Every structure is written in structure tokens, then in C-alpha cells.
Protein 1
Amino acid sequence: MDKITILWADDEIDLLKPHILFLEERGYSVIPVMSGSEALDELENHSKLIDIVFLDENMPGISGLDTLTQIKSNYPQVPVIMITKSEEEHIMNEALGSKISDYLIKPVNPNQILMAIKKHTEARRLQTERSTMNYQQQFREIGMELSGRLDHQLWIQLYKKLVYWDLELSNTDDDNIHDIFISQKNEANQLFCKFYEQHYIDWLTSTTSTTDKPLMSTTVLREKLFPLLHDERPTFLIVIDNFRYDQWKYIQPAIEQYLRTEEDNLYYSIIPTTTQFARNSMFGGLMPSEIERKYPQYWVNEDQEGFKNQFENELLDENLRRHGLNIKHSYNKVLNVHYGRKLVENISNLMQNKLNVIIYNFVDMLSHARTDSNIVRELADDEKAYRSVTLSWFEHSPLAEVFKALMGKDVNIIITTDHGSVRIDHPVRVKGDASVSVNLRYKQGRLLDYNPKEVFEVKDPAKIFLPRRHITSPYIFCHCNDFFAYPNNYNQYVQYYMNTFQHGGISMEEILIPFITLKPKA
């Protein structure tokens, strides 16, 4: 680690020699000056060498606050610690408003100074070292869990743990520990795919108690949303299309500026994990083939023209009616900023409804844009960047304004999605005729030619309650990070889609998705 250099400005700097010696003995370099003007001169001449500034608030000549203003104007990246004898609130507020990094009250002791330095110059390194050490301790524990018999609830707990470590280790510069985590996560995904395949059909057909099968697309609204609709307060259901659990955890601190998290749940998506199937099933409370049979006017097959999820509101109406919920509700799909802002302006009117459904498609559009645009690919180059773009969108989106508008109101708020997505990196060859569906993560159609060992194969779609398009039209689903590629123009096709985010198949990222209950802060 390079030696850290401290610029310390105080008109009584001679009295601070014991503190300076204390720091120098611990490997720090200290530049002492006696005024704000000297501090500014040192920064002008040696700004690249100075890592942190200690600034006395009450100095003759240029005051500490005026010096602070000039430092933050010219060197905004340099952390500044204000030191003062005064505890007056207006001084503290003025300093904080000028973006100081910390605030210490005289007399300060050497350990206070040392802690402030470490906090603002070494925090990331120390946190990274601690995270790496803690994950190394957890690695074996997670491995033992993976070798055990995990049920659907334990898989949720394990996935939450993996997401936690994914976020914790994302800032580390240690390639070895990062590679170890990715390897363990890939192993977990492979085992999860096997678990899901082994139990999926039983979950759909079993008449046993709900404790033996997970909360799924078809049951999540009935079990989690509908009980809230008997409450006096209005409920807002926010559906962010293609929203993963790691993205939720990444933006959670930003949301909790306005709201507090009541429940942090996950539920299991049906397959295919695409909007046409998963979201229609979520709103309708039925599997796709049941919707096609019971409400044929609301189901659009893949080979038919028209939007595949254009009847979500009608399916929700039918679902509410079947459960005796004849309530006033609204349905809003936000496809652009203009409509999002109109929705914010209309919050007071929405408060008259028992239920308000608001759908945001940005994350799904980001996923598709990343596939088609080189610029977006560079902006969201990896998992960390993908999460970061999601956070940036949220902070500047009308959705953040919705949460601000609801902050002081007595409402229930739910954030959820219909499916997640996975970063694909392993092509699997498949052949088929022109009738084969185009999704990269699942295929349905006649004359499919594939290796059954590489896919989850369902020869009879009725077994998993999917519409049958032809007498011989099986469904096949990709595992983990796989994607289907045709032999024609194989290399070009693979190169185009490699490392893009896709959905439709089976992975923890696509299947285990958030259902978050929030309340406004009191």
C-alpha cells in the first residue's frame, strides 16, 4: 500500500506535534500548515500527493469554512475532515452542506484521528479484505449446504446468501476469490436446475398442502397480495419487468430513503420464464393452458399476431372476481417518462382505489437494448455494471417520484416482477423448422433436433400446463447459462448473443424472483 499523505491545517499546529508523531510512527506522511491560504497553496502544488485534509474551522485569515468551499470546488474528490471547538448547530449544518467527509470536536485524541483517516482512505481496502476473509469462511458452509438435501425454502435461503456474497465481493480486486465465488455459484445453479426439473411437475399437479410446494407465479397474488386488499388502506402493486433479486438488493438502500421493507420474499417463476407465460399466469392466477381454455379471448399464442400480454388487466379482473374481490382498481403500464410523470401527478386520485397496479418495463428494455446496442453493452458490461445502470435508472425515474409521493401516506406497497434474467455464455446446438419459437432459452416446435442430456425436455406440454401448438411439439429449456444456437451461421450467432442477458429457461436468476412488501416510514 502506498504511503497516505495528510494535509493538516490548524493555526495551533505546533500543539498538535504529538498527534503528528503518532501518525508518522504508523506510516503516514503529514504536511502541517497554519492557515487556510497555506492549505490551498499546498493543494495547488501537490494535489496529486494529498489523500486527505484535516481542517480547523476557526483560523485567522481565510476561515475553515471558506477554505472548505474552495477545496471542494477545485478538488472535490479529496476528503476533508472538519475539526472545531464549536458545537453550534449552524456551523455543523454549513460544514455538512459543503460536503465535508467527517466532523470532529476538539479536543481530539490520536485514535479519533486514526479512525477518521482509515474510514476515508482505507475503508474500501479494509472492507474488501474483511469480505474476502468472511467469504472464505462461508465457502465451506455453502458447499456443505449444496451437498445436502435442499427443499424449495432452503434453496431460497441459499440463493439469498449467494446474492449477498455476489454484492459483497463485486468490489474486490482479488481475481482468485472472485473466480472461486463464480465457480461455487455455477455449481449451485447446476444443482438448482436439477432440483427444479425433479419437482416442477409435482408442484403443478400435487394436491398436497402448500407447505410442500413453493409460492409460484400462479399463487403469489392470491397468497401475498389479496389478503392486503381486505385492509382499509390502498395497495400499490409495482411490477418491474425482468427484475432480479440482486437488482432489488442493490437499489434497496435508495428505496429505503422513502419506505421501509416489511417483508423480503422470493417466489418461483413458472417456465418458460418470459412475460407471455409468467406474467399472464401471475395476473390470471392460472397456468397458460388453463388461461387458453378458460379465457381464450385473452390468450395469444406465439405463432399468432399481436402482443402476447395485452390482456393482463382483464386477467387480473377475472382473478379478483374469482376470489370475491369486487374492488375498485387501476392498471397502469409505464412505457416512457412522460406517462410516468403523469402517473405521479395523479397519485391523489389513485389513492381512491383499493388496488393500483403499476408496470415498469425499463429493466426488460435495458436487457434487450444491451443485446442490440454496442453502447448499452459497454454501459452494462457485466453483472455489477448491469446493477449499477438499474440503480441509476431508478434514482432518476418517475418510479422514485412515486415512492416520494407515497412516503407520507397510509398505503401498502409491493415491488415484484414476473421473471429474472441470466447472463448467457454457453451455446447449445439445436435444429428445427420454421415453426420453432425464437427465444434463446427455450424452444417449442416440430422436428426439433437436440441432445436430451443438455436440456430439460418436456415432450407433452400438457404435463406442465402449456398450450400445445402441434401434436409433436415438445418444449425444451436451457439450464444455467446456456443458450440455444442454430448450426447455420453458428459462430456469428454465438458471438452476437454471447454474454447478453436473456430469460426463458431455468436458473436461480430467472426462477427465484423478488416479492417485496414495503410501508411508508412513520
Protein 2
Amino acid sequence: MKKTVRVLIIALTVAGLALLCACSGAALAISFGAKSETSAVDTGYIFSLRCEDDQGNVYSANSEGYYEPGTEITIHATWGDDAAFYCWTLGDTLENRGTVLSYDKDYTFTLEEDTYIYGNFRSDDTALVLYHANGGTVVETGNDTLWDEFSLAYYLYPNTLADMGYFEYEGYTLIGYNTEPDGSGEFYNVGGKAFEDTDEVIELYCVWSEQTPSRYFSFDYSYDYEGWMVSGYVGDFDEVSIPTTFNGEPVVGVAEGALTGAEMTTLVLPSCLQVIEDYSFNECANLTTVYVYDSLTYISDDSFDNDESLTTVYFSAATNPKFSNWFNNHSKKVELMAYWTQETDDPIMICLGGSSTAYALDAQLLQELIDEDYIVLNCGSNGANLFNMTSEWAMHFLREGDMLLQITEYSFWQLGGVQCRWESFRSFESCYNVFSWVDAGQYTEFFNSFCTYLTSRASMTDMTYEDYQSTLAPNGYYDIQGTLKIIAKANGSADFHTGRSIYFSGDWLYSYMVYYLNRQYSRLDDMGVTYAMAFTPLNENSLYSYQTDEAMEDFEDYLDEVLNITIISDLQENIFEPEIFFDDDYHLSADGREIYTTQLAEDLNEYFASLSEEAAD
């Protein structure tokens, strides 16, 4: 569990009538409060600068005292090597819910009323999220705000608080957080990533769904799950939010056929539920959106049989993550996409692929060797992650003028397959956001895979988010552009082969795979994003003995014929001797990575030159 910050402010000091008002503190603030009783027109408005502990200093050329209305006052903040400035706040400190005024260390304002200023500082390796219960309350304190601290040594962006009893709102279910109290801002899943500026105070507001009254449901008691199962429904609400209790006991699941044919468009499943039986919500023709937690023990595609309109699913966390190492989890790659699109307006090249891309691509070297000015990101993850999905995730961040490079492995999942695997949920356990960015209706085994993932982690031990993120930090296994920092030695054996026997054939691609790939390319084209395909490295020992050069050429020709994308590399040039692989027929060693990246740069430069020629014509 993340710890809650006990923020900043310890002692109050006020610089008197000295010309320089200085104070050391973690929190200083300015507040435009109501005019005090001692203020009068003939004496003007009071200005006061306040601060606490020793993380920073604040000062002004204006001493504390009364000033004429309209007086311009400038305040300043300074801090040491181990601290950072947060903001100036109005009325009180951050801890005491002062209103953020400015994030600029030097701030000028015009005195319009009695004014009290607080400056807020933090340690340079931490940042804060301020949660507003937004109608509910913070369980531990009864307040409507909660501070949460996270370490910048672990995070590029924080995970929002999982639904572990931090907030409560009787008759409502927490379904997410928003940057605006009315829900008009950026929405984030419960326990998902909040892609906000960590140099500022991240303010998030709880988003609540009012539970549908229990009188519209029928219930049967389950002794297996020790609670009530929803067995029927007679309402016609547009949003159905399953209640969390009935007759003072928990609602634990939804039974087969319980909401068959319901007219709802949105369904909210609270974190208390354990089981969603098959055909619970079948034939719901208008259902488009589902909110569901990872506290379930069972859910399946059949739970939503024939729900043809279902497109958006928000998976939320009711537990801490469990899959901790870099090989199992790749949420850091999503963070990198978000980071660079916020960090720079320069064009970005997002390179997508499986573990072969994760191992084989040196993003910095490629960036140095190519002729176009792209910031290159290695976003290779796991070959089980569908390219159709990962490209949709990338589209969440890609902008006009950016580039997507598809570095495809020779597999069903990387060449247009739409059958989900549970590894995708494992790979992005702490970043469930990504699954709400895709059209769930185009994938098969979607909820089945989620259920397999839940089963696989059921007996695992919860970790803290800090333990979890420490294995994924940018100063850990990946650098800031996604290049793997683990340097692996080559196997060194001419006989090395891990059994990934491959024969290239156009039979790999079914017509629906071609359709979905081309649909993705069309979307990229509409966005003004450049896109191309390259081949991943492959151990020559993995080829079947009857593999021929002609078959490989036919395979390339087939891809070129049916796919609306430019293939920039040659398949045979990406088949390498086994000595430069180390633990898999797709995984290059450090030496192999340099060879492959250099070759890829040459292919890209030829591609860029051809684009320039086309533009000139």
C-alpha cells in the first residue's frame, strides 16, 4: 500500500517589517482571503508571507504589512539540492487544502485584498497526488481530501489508488478518477496510470456511479461465496450499477441469465463481486461500456454473449500488483510513450514488437544513425501482445508527424491476430488503462484471458507499488527511451536453437488478420502518422530444413501484396547466425543488438530517401 503523505508544514514564522522576508519551509502559501476586520481603506490591505520546515526558503522585497490596493508584489522561492519547489497556495498550505495559485518560483501578483501566501516544497525524488472524495469521504479521517506520495525514483507517472477502502460514498461505487470534479477532464482507471505532470500537484477527483436500487433486482443466497447473487432484474435504466449489499450482506456475483436482454448502455460491476456467471448479461443489444474490477474469480466472454455493441471495458484494480519483474510486465513502455509526447514537440518514432524488439533494438543508436530527426522509443514488449492492441495503445499518444515502426515477429499475434492471451494482462498489470483504449468488440477471448490472468495471480502475494515499480524504473531495466539495459553475452554455439521451428508461408495470414491490420494502417494514415514494417531478427537454426529462399521471397511478396504498408527490410537479411543469440531464437545478445540496429538504420534511411523522392515528384 502506498503511504499517505503527511505534508510539509511544521512551524509558522512571519517575517516582520524587514525589507527581506525569508523563511525556510516545505510549504508556503499565498491566500487571497476575506478582508480582515483590522483592515481599513486608509491603511490598505495586509500582505504576509508564511512558511514551514527546512526544505526551502521564500522571500519578497515587500515586508509584511499594509499596502495600497493595486500594489504589485513579487515573491520568490529557493531550495537546496535535495528539494524541489511545488507551488504557491492561497489561504493555507497544501496539507490544509490551500488553493494552488502558481507553480512558478518567482510570482508576481496585484494586491486586491488581505493576502497570505504559503510556499510548498517537496523532496526532489518524490511527488504528490491530491485526491478529492468528490461527494464521498476519506475513510480514515472523514475528510474530503487525501494526499498520496510516490517516488520519482520508481515512477515516471503514479498509479492511482486501488479500491482498497480509501474512499466511501454510501450507495455509490468508485469507478475511476478524473482531473476535473465534473468529470470533463482526463479519466483514469482505479489503480491505473495517471499521465500527469509530476512537477505539479496532481489533483484527481473520485468518479462515482450511483448504485441501482436493490428493489429492481432479485437475489439468491450463495453459500459457496457467502453472499447474495443477483438472479434477476426488472429495471430499464440506461446505466445499471450493481449494488454492493442486500439485506445488510454483500452482493458477491451475478447469476446466469440475471440481466438477459437488459436495455442498459453502461454496466458497473463493483469490487465486492467474486463471480460473473456465463450468460449473465447476454443479448444486451445496447450495452457499450463495462466497468469491472480485478477482484473477480470468474468472468468469461460468454458472460456477455451476443452483446454486439460492447466496445469499451474499464478494468480497475482492487488489489496491488503481483507480477513484478521487467520480463513479465511492460507498463513502463506505455509510460515512455506518454512521457515523450509530453516532454517534446519533436516527432517520435514508436517501435512496436515482441521480446525480440525489446532485446534487439538500441533506440539511442538507431536515433543517431537515421537521417530523419525522430526521438526513437523501443516499445517492444512480449510476442503474446497483439500488434492490433499495442498499435491502438500507441495511437493514444501518436501525433501528426510521428512514426510507428512495426517490427513484426513471425507469429499469429504479431501479424494481425485478434485472439487475446492472458499474458497481455500480465504485461500491463499496473496499467489497465490500455484496455479501455481498444475496441473490445474486435477481439476474441477478451474476458476469458482476463479470467485466466486472475486465476494465475490468485495465489501470489501482493506487493507494494514501490516494490513493484522498483523493478520497472527507468534507472532499472530500461533507459528513458526503452532500451534494455541488461547486457547479455552471446551463446557462442553454432548449434544453438531453442525449438522455434519456422516455415514461411502466406497461409499464416487469414483474411480477417489482413483486414484488421489494414484497418490499423488506415487509422494511422488518417492521423497523419508515418508507418512502415520491418522484420525481427531470427536464428537461422530455427528454420525448417525444407525452408527455401523461394518460399521466403514468396512470403514477402504476399505480405507486400495484401498489406497496405511499406516493408522496408528484407526477410533473409534478418536471419542471423546462432552465435549472436543467447537464450532464444528471437533474442539477440549485446553484440547482435548493435548489428541488427545498424542494419535497421540502413533500411530506414533507404525508406526515408524513397519518401523524399516521392515528395519531389
